[in-house]
Design goal:
With 148 residues, the chain is mainly α. It contains 6 helices and no strands. It is elongated, with a radius of gyration of 18 Å.
Length: 148
């Protein structure tokens, strides 16, 4: 296949998927291997929200799990494997982050953090899966079709 065989939509999906994948993968790498999941939980979940109605155990659980979700789902997006599952997991993270920021500050301006990530995520999610040619998911589908 030549470059002309791929649609502009396939390239757009690839670039959006890679950018979003790198954003979350690198954040997850830092949170898991540099900051540490428990320190992430303490610093970004427990300390800021300990005085809210949220149970302390839920703050520790969410804060410790989010880095691994970001790392894993970001990596899946980078290669385009189980893309829909990765997008749904990261969408959940974005909803959680939005809720947390708005709980702490009801007029929080999340246009520089949440909105760009959500826009990329929604773009990739609504694009037809068959157009994401540069992914493991597409390669796998073509391989299965060739065997049939």
């Amino acid at each position: 296949m030549t470059q002309e065989d791929f649609s502009n939509r396939a390239w757009a999906i690839l670039f959006a998927r890679l950018i979003l994948g790198f954003i979350f993968f690198m954040a997850g790498m830092w949170k898991v291997f540099t900051l540490g999941p428990l320190e992430h939980a303490r610093r970004l979940f427990v300390d800021p929200y300990a005085q809210t109605f949220l149970p302390r155990w839920s703050l520790w659980a969410a804060g410790a799990v989010v880095p691994f979700v970001e790392l894993t789902a970001g990596a899946l997006l980078l290669v385009g494997f189980r893309t829909r599952d990765a997008l749904l997991a990261l969408g959940g993270v974005l909803v959680l982050v939005t809720f947390g920021h708005l709980l702490a500050e009801p007029l929080y301006e999340f246009h520089s953090h949440v909105i760009p990530r959500a826009a990329l995520l929604l773009f990739v999610l609504v694009m037809p899966r068959g157009e994401d040619w540069f992914s493991v998911d597409a390669w796998w589908k073509r391989r299965r079709a060739a065997r049939s």
